[in-house]
Amino acid sequence: MFADQLTQEQRQVVFDLAANLAAADNDVSDEEIQYLKDFSTAYGIEYDLDKSDINISAALAKLDSKKARVITLQELIKISYKDGHFGEEEQDKIFLLAQKMGLNNTDLLMRIEAWVRQGFDWVYEGEQMLEG
């Protein structure tokens, strides 16, 4: 997992932003909850979904490299896909976060989104092969 390359403080930022994003559509799916539980367990982060009051600017300031920002966006897009679709509200929120990170490059965002989608396709294809 690419989040292994982040500091513990940066992983906390990813979790906080992901929990905040999951609640964006006012409907946190079972898949999103499982992702957040898995992430918190993997990195020893307290599992707490109430992230509506986080200071996003302060959180983003902890992502002090392009690599950390790209990994964070990748994780946020990944949780957005967990409920089966990358909704418009989620896309808008991620694009806004990317702009605040100084990554308002549409091509880069599209590449990250394609990377995540290909990962999901790869897992799905493997599951189909193993079942078939």
Automatic annotation (TrEMBL):
Gene3D superfamilies the record matches: TerB-like (1.10.3680.10)
Protein origin, superkingdom: Bacteria
SUPFAM superfamilies attached to this UniProt entry: TerB-like
InterPro entries hit by this protein: TerB-like (IPR029024)
Name of the protein in question: TerB family tellurite resistance protein
Organism: Thiomicrorhabdus heinhorstiae
